[in-house]
Specification:
alpha+beta; eleven-stranded mixed β-sheet; eight-stranded antiparallel β-sheet; 7 helices; 26 strands; about 15% helix; elongated
């Protein structure tokens, strides 16, 4: 990866500078105070990183909710600077966002900023700073900032949607090559306030770590929940972590090392590949990738036509089932895209048996319906005839007829959750004797007047459920 060019400057005396807005105080200290009782004396260490002295601006202005962890965050970053040879200037004064002033920093940290914190002139100065190779670090509520500034949304990677209560969760580390995550194991157990985001940043950023939504309550991102990522953006470098709500976070050695690696990356002091992942979602295996129908079998009349140029399957005629005979699944997440053309009918079957008769799937498995004009228990998002979708949530999430939609069908034991475009629209428990959620996956071709297309069918097997 080619890093943006940065201009080195002579080393300055390492210091911590605190700027309090309103002109009340400007203090410079040569000795950095300790974190106090219970603090980590040294951060956990990953691969050795040798950097030149550099300068960081920590910006923590709030125009909405103010986190009581901000002061602990400033102190932690200041201590990291003293230990790793970078200068920290902390401020809530947005007037410092000028072209001349920002040029003095290799990275700008948005530490739990909230709301509209920069005016148009200041925004332009910050955009110019990033264009010229500057670095951005977003911590926690940096994603709860500047909702009307589309450029910032792109820089941060995703913006805040909601959060459940503070609780322990399992973080899955996806990238061990980045300095922010190189020191961590495969999983990272920690307690924080876990944000849900309005969009998934995976399409525009390299995801470094994600949340296991089964390990806590309140995740709403359909099982793919990035929580830390990095990217090259508009000439500069950007790093974001969703951690840092609690005061205690900034005393955790692993979290401090996580921040240090992110700051060093954004400041251009380390090499890291933050290009967008070009493969499938981590853990997902394609069973239809748009090029071949190997492993699939047609039961009953009709067929699905493969278009390898478009990477699609299109239903044609009859009332049949195209099912993945190559493998059965018990606990899994199924992701696929579908598009309904006109007033058409189709569905996805789970728990299908191996059979030449498509009605065996109807009688022994469950159909997740595609048909947005039918009655509630038989309309899009329903478990056909058994349970209607949450119609209000479904209607809000559903893209218009003729546009692509994404289903995630998450089967865990007797529980089936249906997500439409990352929104949970149905939570169903299987109780029917003689039926099963476990089995083969099938796509329905409903009839001659029905045209529905599918693409990117992929499966992630999940751990067995524990009774």
């Amino acid at each position: 990866m080619t890093q943006p060019t940065r201009t080195s400057r002579p080393s300055r005396l390492r210091r911590a500078t605190l700027l309090l807005t309103g002109g009340a105080l400007c203090a410079t200290a040569l000795v950095v105070p300790s974190m106090g009782a219970g603090a980590a004396e040294q951060p956990a260490t990953g691969p050795e990183t040798v950097t030149d002295p550099f300068d960081v601006l920590v910006f923590s202005k709030t125009a909405g909710f103010r986190h009581d962890s901000i002061e602990a965050g400033i102190q932690a970053i200041t201590e990291l600077g003293a230990e790793h040879d970078f200068t920290v200037t902390a401020t809530e004064d947005s007037t410092l966002f000028t072209e001349e002033n920002l040029a003095g920093y290799q990275a700008v940290v948005f530490l739990s900023t909230t709301g509209d914190v920069l005016d148009d002139t200041q925004q332009a100065a910050f955009e110019g700073y990033i264009n010229n190779g500057g670095g951005y670090v977003g911590i926690h509520a940096a994603a709860d900032t500047e909702y009307d500034w589309a450029w910032y949304d792109g820089l941060a990677g995703a913006l805040f949607a909601s959060h459940p209560h503070i609780q322990e969760a399992t973080v899955t580390v996806e990238d061990h090559d980045h300095p922010a995550t190189a020191h961590l194991g495969e999983t990272w157990e920690r307690t924080d306030e876990w944000y849900n985001y309005r969009t998934n940043p995976r399409d525009s950023a390299r995801v470094l770590a994600s949340l296991d939504e089964s390990s806590y309550e309140g995740g709403t991102m359909a099982g793919d929940h990035p929580i830390a990522w990095c990217k090259e953006y508009d000439g500069g470098l950007a790093f974001y972590t969703g951690g840092g709500h609690t005061i205690e976070s900034f005393a955790e050695p692993d979290f401090r090392q996580h921040l240090l690696g992110g700051i060093q990356y954004a400041a251009g002091q380390t090499d890291a590949d933050c290009s967008v992942d070009d493969g499938e979602e981590p853990g997902y295996t394609p069973i239809f990738d748009g090029t071949s129908t190997e492993g699939w079998t047609q039961a009953g009349p009709g067929e699905f036509v493969l278009d390898p140029e478009e990477g699609t399957l299109t239903s044609v005629g009859g009332m049949g089932l195209f099912y993945y005979e190559a493998q059965a699944y018990e606990n899994y997440s199924l992701l696929l895209d579908w598009r309904q053309i006109g007033d058409s009918n189709s569905g996805i079957f789970v728990g299908s048996p191996i059979s030449d008769d498509p009605w065996d799937a109807v009688n022994l498995g469950y159909e997740i319906q595609i048909d947005d004009t039918d009655v509630p228990e038989r309309t899009t998002g329903s478990v056909y005839t058994f349970q209607s979708a949450d119609i209000e949530a479904r209607d809000a999430a559903l893209n218009p007829n003729g546009e692509w939609n994404t289903y995630e069908l998450r089967v865990e034991g007797d529980r089936l959750r249906i997500y439409l475009n990352e929104v949970l629209i149905n939570d169903f428990t299987h109780t029917e004797e003689g039926r099963s959620l476990a089995g083969h996956i099938g796509l329905q071709n409903h009839g001659a007047d029905d045209t529905v297309q599918f693409r990117d069918v992929r499966v992630q097997e999940l751990p067995p459920t524990i009774d």
